[in-house]
Amino acid sequence: RRAAALAQGTFLARQDADDVSRPERLQMSLALLSSDARLSAVACRVRQFPEDELPSGMRAYGQWLNGLLTPSDIAREIWVESPLPHPAVVMQREAFERCGGYRETRWPEDYDLWLRMHVAGWRLAKVDALLYDWRHAAGRLTFSDARYDPAAFLDCKLHHLSPRLQGRHLIVWGAGQDGKRLTRALQAREHHVAAFIDIDPRKVGGTRLGVRVWAPEHLPEMHAPASESTLLLVAVGTRGARQLIRERLAPLGYEELRDFLCLH
């Protein structure tokens, strides 16, 4: 915050002290940022190093990050995890200030900012080039600070998502650990979850947290009350599950971002 207040330029660029920017990073990031006035922040593809010390979760996260390039890619996945590698970001100062800049919160300050930008109608993107070497080090805040716990990320998501949930007929896809954690958090915020969807025959037909579990085939029959529209929240953390669920929902006429959101 102090650096942003002292800065005089139209753009703000981030970098961590122990990382490496490739020579073209700023030039290419500024070119992309200047190409669309609706873009508030851009990053680039990253290389995490040293590779032999990366935990498997960070490897998977890096692959996911590098696969999200366009504004539509990022908008589709923004409720899953933080879609921009914070140290590699270049931002429009105007958008940064309009959205309130960095805030002291109980969750990650960068993810909080990206969600505020997204909710305000700004767009995020990445340069389709590997322009940043992102160092992994033991003891980094990602693994040691409570603000980066899964519970803190969920708290951040629901803080920004709650206004969109008002008056919606909520269904949670996933009656496992992730779905139950989401449902508890929703119930704590007085959002009513009408049903679970799950493919596990051991769960279908039963209840979780007082909510009935249905198979996906029953979705067409699960009509919302006349005063509400259905919103399906996908909460399955198994790798590859999001794409499979999207493929199940498309023939049913469910449109992502309108009728369903992926939160895991």
Explained architecture:
With 264 residues, this protein is of the alpha/beta class. The protein contains ten helices and eleven strands. It has a six-stranded mixed sheet with strand order 8-9-7-6-10-11, covered by helices on one side. The chain has a five-stranded mixed sheet with strand order 1-4-3-5-2, sandwiched between helices. The chain is globular.
Structural class per helix/strand content? alpha/beta
Tell me, briefly, the overall form.
globular
Oligomer: single chain
Strand arrangement within the widest β-sheet reads 8-9-7-6-10-11
How many strand units? 11
Please state the CA-atom Rg, rounded to the nearest Å.
Answer: 20 Å
List segments where confidence is low: pLDDT < 50 over at least 5 consecutive residues: none
Write the H/E string, N to C: HEEHEHHEHHEHHEHEEEEHE
Range of helix content:
25-40%
Note the main sheet.
Answer: 6 strands, mixed
Mean pLDDT over the full residue set = 95
Binned strand content: 15-25%
What separation lies between the terminal Cα atoms? 30 Å
Number of helices: 10
At a glance:
This protein has ten helices and eleven strands. By secondary structure, it is an alpha/beta fold. Helix 6 (109-119) packs parallel to helix 8.
Topology overview:
Blueprint (H helix, E strand, L loop, with lengths): L1 H5 L4 E3 L6 E2 L3 H10 L4 E11 L6 H11 L4 H7 L12 E3 H6 L10 H11 L3 E13 L5 H4 L5 H16 L2 E6 L3 H12 L4 E5 L9 E2 L2 E4 L14 E6 L6 H9 L10 E3 L2
Parallel strand pairs: 3-5, 6-7, 6-10, 7-9, 10-11
Antiparallel strand pairs: 1-4, 2-5, 3-4, 8-9
Helix pairs in contact: 6-8
